[in-house]
Amino acid sequence: MTLTIYNTLTRRQEPFETVEPGKVKMYYCGVTVYDYCHLGHARACIIWDVVRRYLQFLGYEVTYIQNFTDIDDKILNRARQENSSMEAVAERYIQAYFEDMTRLNVKEADAYPRATHTMNGIQRLIFELEQKGYAYPADGDVYYAVKQFPEYGKLSGRRLEDLQAGASGRVDAEDPEGRKKQEPFDFALWKAAKPGEPAWESPWGAGRPGWHIECSAMVRDRLGDTIDIHAGGADLIFPHHENEIAQSEAVTGKSLSHYWMHNGMVKVNGEKMSKSLGNFITIRELLDRPTDPMAVRLFVLQAHYRKPIDFTDEAIAAATNGWHTLREGLLFGHQYGKQLGWSQETGGQGEQGGQGSNSSHQPLATSNSPDSRLPTPDSLLPEVVQRFKAAVNDDFNFPNGLAVLQPLAKELAREGNLLVHQGKTETSPEELQRQWYTLVTLAEVLGFTAEIEPDTTTNDGLSDTEIEAMLEQRQAARKAKNFAESDRIRDELQARGIAVIDSRDGTRWHRN
Ligand SMILES: Nc1ncnc2c1ncn2[C@@H]1O[C@H](COP(=O)(O)OP(=O)(O)OP(=O)(O)O)[C@@H](O)[C@H]1O
Ligand SMILES: [Zn+2]
User: Where is the composition biased (Polar residues) (predicted)?
Assistant: First the structure.
């Protein structure tokens, strides 16, 4: 049962083999910091967070680097609008990024290099490219000569002839860069300073780097010539990642990354959620509605990471319901552990326990590792762990991994309900303890954490099981044509923050 990964480069799912045994070097192309992050960025960050967590769970020592692009026209425009500086804008949105990601329980990367802090590495790469004949200066700019790199197009599957045909129509006299380029598909490594814009001294004159070279330099500085996993959104395959390969591999003569992984887009009515289209919702807007951050995580992880997903209010409501079930399971031990007589003596692995979880990195947010006040059993349920791994090892199939955890959570919630109403459970306390501990440990691999305090977004005070029971009573009343009673139940649910929706497919509900 080994991990296999779909590799964009080879267009195949391949067994995962690392350059160095037991170690993974991973780089994720992070955000351009000119505004608050939106749900699309959240999806990317959550997916790569969980990929990293899962690799750690398997026992790998993972070095995870995520960059901030802090030089960019969009940041400059924002600075101009606000009469501020590029540094101030970038700093503000980097801060906001950390706030948002903490709320979503995204673990901190091992380092967050920034373009502005990597100027030496960037210039060194451009210099080497020029020396080797892959780059040419033109009027204070420096361009990459795409034709010099015969493998150009290997990641995206695009052919130079097609690019030429596509690009030639767009290069005209109005495009100043176009006139400096030898070929229309050549791209800028360095751009000459424009009046009033931030600039750095360089052998080609004052200027600033192009976007693609930043990442090549940051990967090399932080992780070396060849890494294991290079990740990013599918929108970056071309030209960004194609260009990174062309730059890095031309200089080193080695493969830049063995595996290229890409997440699918969050879409709205079939179009990519993006700032430029204006069809976005920021993470903070969504969370302040309020939406439980863990429901956002569930919304993301319920879909396969490579597939596009549509953002709709309904989808978030469904994920919120799913999260409430999972949450009930995760809280089981905290709610009933004492009553079930889980003794302190059974403790085995301590607070941070968790089979295979050898991470030395602390999450940004508080972890939901089993509460240190509660005892932990000696082991997880091997059969459940086995099924979870078998699911996720198949190209990080998180939806299938979740499908292993959800029934376990449901079952614990049911047992909790029995305990409350009948004073006893069907399953033995020892077995329940192992089930709960297994659930909590595996849920944490997916980054789910349940607060022990009642969740502020659920002020109705009703558990899922109670809501379902009321809906059953309502159904019975309707069957008996006692509509006064069925309406009364619906109104009561409504008053307690639960929306009830009747449709031809049955009755659904969600918390408002
Ligand atoms: N709608 C989306 N769905 C999933 N991932 C996305 C989405 N938008 C951006 N990403 C990913 O988030 C990361 C940071 O992207 P970046 O800051 O370059 O945003 P962008 O694509 O320019 O978005 P925008 O145009 O909205 O600013 C990249 O890996 C990118 O692929
Ligand atoms: Zn990049």
Answer: 361-371
263 lines ligand 1 (CB under 6 A): yes
Strand partners for 506:
503
pLDDT band at 104 (very low <50, low <70, confident <90, very high): very high
Closest atom of ligand 1 to 264 CA is 4
329 sits in which H/E element: helix 313-336
**Taking Cα atoms as reference points, which of 26, 7, 25, 31 lies closest to residue 211?**
31
What pairs with residue 499 in β-bridges? 510
pLDDT digits (tens, 9 = 90+) for 339-387: 999 975 333 333 333 334 333 322 233 334 444 445 556 689 999 999 9
pLDDT of residue 499: 82
> Could you give the CA distance from residue 58 to residue 56 in angstroms, rounded to a whole number?
5
β partners of residue 138: 141
List residues forming the annotated binding site for Zn(2+): 29, 215, 240, 244
Q: Is 261 in the pocket of ligand 1 (CB under 6 A)?
A: no
Over 185-243, what HEC string results?
Answer: CCEEEEEECCCCCCCECCCCCCEEECHHHHHHHHHHHHHCCCEEEEEEEHHHHHHHHHH
The C-alpha atoms of residue 465 and residue 414 are separated, in whole angstroms, by 8
Cβ atoms of 24 and 62 within 8 Å: the answer is yes
Helix or strand run (H / E) with residue 53: helix 39-57
Domain boundaries, the chain: 333-445, 464-511
> Residue for token digits 């305990």?
419
Closest ligand 1 atom to the C-alpha of 234?
Answer: 31
Longest dimension (CA), the chain: 86
What is d(CA 226, CA 222) in angstroms, rounded to the nearest whole number?
Answer: 11
Helix or strand (DSSP H, E) at 128: helix 119-131
Ramachandran area for residue 449 (φ above 0: left; ψ -120 to 50: alpha; else beta): beta
The interface pTM score, or ipTM, of the predicted complex is 0.97
Provide the pairing of β-strand 23-28 with 227-233: parallel
* pLDDT of amino acid 455: 45
pLDDT digits (tens, 9 = 90+) for 415-452: 999 999 999 999 999 999 999 999 999 999 999 999 76
Nearest ligand (C-alpha, residue 237): 1
The closest-lying atom of ligand 1 relative to the alpha carbon of residue 272 is 1
Query: Distance (Å, rounded) from C-alpha 292 to C-alpha 298?
Result: 10
| Sequence-ordered list of residues with C-beta below 8 angstroms from that of 259, at least 6 positions apart, any chain | 5, 7, 9, 14, 16, 228, 229, 230
